[in-house]
Amino acid sequence: MIHVVFQHADVEALKKSFELDEALQGQIFEIQDDYAVGPLNDLFSDEGMAARLQWWKEILTDGHYEGIADDGHVNDPAVVTEIKKLLDEISEETLWIWAAQNKHDVSGYYWLMSQLKDYQGRVLILYLNNLPFINEKGNLFYPTNLFQIPAKEFLKAKKLARPITLSEFEVDPDEWTKLANENKGVRLLEGGKKLIQKEYDYYDAELLKFVTKDWQKVHKFFNQFYSKANETTGDAYLLWRLKNLAASGTIDVQGNKKNMKEMEIRWSVPEPINLLVD
Predict the structure, then answer these.
(1) Distance, CA of 156 to CA of 135 (rounded, Å)
(2) C-alpha separations of 197 from 44, 144, 202 in Å
(3) What pLDDT, on a 0 to 100 scale, did the predictor assign at position 273?
(4) How many CB atoms sit inside 10 A of residue 131's CB?
(5) Which of 33, 35, 47, 66 has its CB 3.0 to 4.6 Å from that of 107, i.e. a possible disulfide?
(6) In contact, 34 and 102? CB cutoff 8 Å
(7) Is 109 in contact with 99 (CB distance < 8 Å)?
(8) 200 φ, ψ (degrees, to nearest 5)
(9) What secondary structure does DSSP assign to 169-237, as a single string?
(10) Across the 278 residues of the chain, what is the mean pLDDT of every consecutive 10-residue run?
(11) Where are the chain's structural domains?
(12) Cα(38)–Cα(164) distance, rounded to whole angstroms?
């Protein structure tokens, strides 16, 4: 059994469930890129992936996450190659794709499954689409991320596994192609597996709701943003948007941009009005 998840925290959560059910045990692969943001055009070619990698390098330059796109640790095409190799070598092997109801997982699902049609019948999806689970306190809740589920609840979740149908292998890659051709920068989950797209500056208005006239440490600003904003995405992308807002003169930035605990922002202070008359 091969497992695929789309967030690093999901890896540890899934591993804990193995201790409760040996039948779940298998190799876990993580798709690391966040396909809910950035360009998608021609990503199944070396040129398309290189262009996306260059985009990440540009938005991470001179910031807290500078360099993480250069060390090669994020290489999703290599992950897919390894998965296919395992499926080819062991004819009875199956692939389980775990996805929760969030734009990050669903975007990753479309990217991944569009490359697996040759394995139809051996690729299963476990999609936690608006389904209730029990949390550690015994209360009913609806998880939006896989890592929110306690280990014992994975035993219930595995019952949701079903093969990706031939129809889905026909239709879903077309949905991915449509998203790529729209050439927009932000994807949001509207419901089910339906993604809608917005422009690259989509999060700017929401970010500005939390900017004040006083200096704020960026890491504290993000804590407030994540706890209250209706739509969020990763730090790396949002830091890039803050840099754009600073470049436009909307906000001021001071401190070390390569450390969120030292970087500060505030509303841009207008030039004082000269009231003296010649």
Answers:
(1) 13
(2) 20, 19, 9
(3) 47
(4) 13
(5) 35
(6) no
(7) yes
(8) -60, -30
(9) HHHHHHHHHHHHHHT-SEEEEEETTEEEEE-TTTTHHHHHTT--SS-EEHHHHHHHHHHH-SS---HHH
(10) 95 90 91 97 94 94 85 89 97 95 96 96 92 86 91 85 95 95 95 94 96 96 95 95 95 93 89 47
(11) 2-178, 204-267
(12) 26
- The CA distance from 61 to 79, in Å, is 26
**Distance between first and last Cα of the chain:** 82
Tokens of 230: 């209706």
Whole-number Å distance between alpha carbons of 261 and 249: 22
Contact 252, 267 (CB under 8 A): yes
At 49, the amino acid letter reads M
- Write out pLDDT tens, residues 95-128: 999 999 999 999 999 999 999 999 999 999 999 8
Domain 204-267 in this protein, CATH class: mainly alpha
pLDDT reported for residue 276: 46
DSSP structural state of residue 3:
E
Question: Are 7 and 35 spatial neighbours (Cβ–Cβ below 8 Å)?
Answer: no
How many of the other CB atoms lie within 10 Å of CB of 187?
Answer: 25
Taking the C-alpha atoms of 115, 117, 118 and 123 in order, what is their torsion angle to the nearest 10 degrees? 100
Q: CA 200, 203, 205, 211: dihedral to nearest 10 degrees?
A: -130
